[in-house]
C-alpha cells in the first residue's frame, strides 16, 4: 500500500516545487495536493500514474493504488468523457476537472479528479495546466449556458470585469464576473438571480481567467 502523504511530499520537495507548482504539473489544484500530503485523500488512478511518471517509477505502485480510486463526490453519470468529443478540429486533451451538481450559485465541488477531456482551443495549445469545467445551471446566463464547457488559463492575471473561476479553500468553485478586489474583499457578480457575491481573500485559493467556452458536442 502506497503512503501517498509521504510519497507526494517527498517527490515535491525533491523537485523543489511549491504545492501550487506541483499541482500544476499534474493538472490539479494546490488544495488537492495539500489534502494528499495531509493524508486526508489519495490520488485517483490517473493521478497516481502521473505521480509515478514524475518520480520515474515503473507505474506498478500507481496501478496497485488505483485499484480503489478516490471517487468524485456527486459526479453525475451523464457527464462522462465519452459524451464530450469537443468541437470539430480540436484535439480532445483539455482535462475536465472533477465536479458535483451545481448549487443555486453555480458551485462545483472539485476534488482534483479529471473526469474527462474536452477539445483544446488553439489559444491553450501548450498550456499544460489549462483545464475545463462544465456549467451546470443558469446563474451566469446568457454569458454561459448550462452544459457549456468553459476553458480556463490559470497563467493570465485576472482583472476587474473578467469572467473567472474562483476556487475556494474548501474546494468549491464559482463561475462569476470579477467586479473588484480589495485587501478585505473579493467582489463578484452573478446574473441569475442578480446578486453580488463576496469572499474574504483568505477564503480564496485561486482565481483563474475564463478564456473561452463551447457547447457540448455529441
Short summary of the structure?
The protein has 218 residues and is α+β, with helices and mostly antiparallel strands. Helix content is 20%, strand content 30%. The chain has 2 domains: 4-65, 434 Repressor (Amino-terminal Domain), CATH 1.10.260; 81-215, Umud Fragment, subunit A, CATH 2.10.109.10.
**CATH H-level name of the largest domain... which superfamily?**
Umud Fragment, subunit A
- Taking pLDDT < 50 over at least 5 consecutive residues as the criterion, the unreliable ranges are 57-84, 100-104
- How much of the sequence lies in strands comes to 25-35%
Major sheet size, sense and barrel closure: 8 strands, antiparallel
The tally of beta strands, per DSSP, is 10
The DSSP helix count reads: 5
Structure classification: alpha+beta
Taking Cα atoms only, what radius of gyration do you get, to the nearest Å?
Answer: 17 Å
> What is the global morphology?
globular
CATH topology call of the largest domain: Umud Fragment, subunit A
Share of helix, binned? 10-25%
- Named at the architecture level, the CATH assignment of the largest domain is Ribbon
- SSE series: HHHHHEEEEEEEEEE
Mean pLDDT: 76
Give the C-level CATH assignment of the largest domain: Mainly Beta
Domain count, please report it.
Answer: 2
Span between termini: 40 Å
Descriptive terms for the model:
218 residues; alpha+beta; 434 Repressor (Amino-terminal Domain); Umud Fragment, subunit A; 2 domains; eight-stranded antiparallel beta sheet; two-stranded antiparallel sheet; 5 helices
